[in-house]
Amino acid sequence: MTASAHRHELYTVDQVRALDRRAIDTLGIPGYELMQRAAAAALVCLRHHWPRARRIAVCCGPGNNGGDGFLLAMLAREAGFHAEVVALGDSRGDDAIRARREFEASGGVVHAWHDELVLPEADVLVDALFGTGLQRALSAEVATLVRRMRATGCPLLALDVPSGVNADTGAVPGEAIRADATVTFIAAKRGLYTGFAPGHVGQVHWDPLGLPETLWQGFHADAELMQPVTLPPRPRQAHKGDNGHVLAIGGEHGTAGAIRLCGEAALRAGAGLVSIATRGEHLVALNAARPELMAHEVHGPQALEELMQRATVLAVGPGLGQGAWGHALWTTALDAGRSTVLDADGLNLLAREPRPFTGSTVLTPHPGEAARLLGCDTATIAADRFAAVRELARRYGAVAVLKGAGSLVADQDGRVAVCPWGNPGMASGGMGDLLTGIVAALLAQGCDAWQAACLGVGLHARAGDLAARHHGERGLIASDLLEPLRLLLNGRES
Asked: Binding residues for (6S)-NADPHX, per the UniProt record (predicted)?
């Protein structure tokens, strides 16, 4: 095994610091050498993204992240670049001080940052201000520098972590660097992939700095980055009964669209049969639009129980409402103890009447629904999405999906997977209904709750990216994902 085997492992800041200490104390690699390796990796990344760049300006903070920046500037000058540094105060720490002195001794120019300073002309700006060393909002002085950097319009490379982004949680409590690319060192930080961070990191590159596999031995990553996988081909003798029967429950007055999207997504994700339990007024429209959906009028629990006898998986919540009809169906469905995906009003009812689950259950809340389920506000969810999704899974005894940029999946044992796909065009109505149907279909085809949630979230996001690639993000609607979803499930990318 090589260090690249850890490419998809995500670590907390404390874990990365422990790895850094192990490299120095146990493997005997001096901290300054690690700094030199980081600078070399950063220069490779810079040249990869901006091969025509000849002038760079590096904004350096006082700590080791700033030391990385000074050494990058020195290496760039040696490689024929014009490189200048804007320094945020004096350097601190032996390695950072040494890096600054060597840059200055080589003839490098250092500008002390102040509000009136005009940043040097550059083809690329480099953020080497704080990295993982700061997890609170940037000070007013630094925020001014960050805004000034953005105002130049220059491409921006961040070293390790964009300054102002919490590398543990993905939260951005104030002003922050918006990088075009981030090169992160030793181990991938979990916060770079979720919350507000995806809007600040650009393209993330991980560099292990040439460290040996022994560095990671005994370390267990806090989370994992999802991989692009799909289901295996079906056997030639397969029939519809082999692929499960999803019963989608919802569609209160005026919300036929939600339950139709859920049901159609279940069909496109490979369920053998899909039934719909809904209001009678929706039957004509559903049968006309998608005759493969077996739509049934359901007045109350008795009619639903008859349908559930034939179903293997329940998808509960899209358009369900929280009135007497929806509540009665919700109670009946959950009391059945079947494999279940719970979304939308199914989650809002759960927040009103909490209950733990013992069967194969997947909850798919967005941050607002998650806040109601945990009895807090959305700011608390955003402050630490990893803690929130783990608590959802623990409290309700289910696999939990916390939707949003960098969706998270957690199980009751604390395992977390992070989705690296998806785009802003997916912030439109009906996307959650699709996900509910997709996950339900995967459960129906034999996936366990963890597999169905991870695979479903990944396929949903990748389908969104594929749809956006062909037609653009703005104006993307939920049904645009159905054909790309089918392609991905069959191992095709275009």
From this structure: 64-68, 131-137, 160, 258, 319, 366, 433
E strand map for 221-310:
223-225, 245-249, 273-278, 294-297
Amino acid at 22: R
Question: Do the beta carbons of residue 468 and residue 425 sit within 8 Å?
Answer: yes
Residue type, 268: R
The label of the residue with tokens 């991905």 reads 488
Burial 88-103 (b: 16+ CB within 10 A, else e): beebeeebbebbbebb
d(CA 470, CA 487): 14
Q: What is the pLDDT of residue 86?
A: 98
135 is in an annotated binding site: yes
Q: What are the structure tokens assigned to 82, written together?
A: 């014009």
Domains of the chain and any CATH numbers: 3-225 (3.40.50.10260), 240-489 (3.40.1190.20)
pLDDT digits (tens, 9 = 90+) for 274-319: 999 999 999 999 999 999 999 999 999 999 999 999 999 999 999 9
Binding site annotation covers 366?
yes
Residue 258 marked in a binding site? yes
Half-sphere exposure of 62 (CA within 13 A, CB side): 9
Instruction: Report whether 480 belongs to an annotated binding site.
Output: no
Crossing angle of helices 449-471 and 482-489, in 10° steps, is 120
pTM metric for this prediction: 0.94
Tell whether residue 227 is among the known ligand binding residues.
Answer: no
137 annotated as belonging to a binding site for a ligand: yes
Q: What is the 3-state secondary structure (H, E, C) of 446-492?
A: CCCHHHHHHHHHHHHHHHHHHHHHHHCCCCCCHHHHHHHHHHHHCCC
Quote the CA–CA distance of 39 and 75 in Å, as a whole number: 8
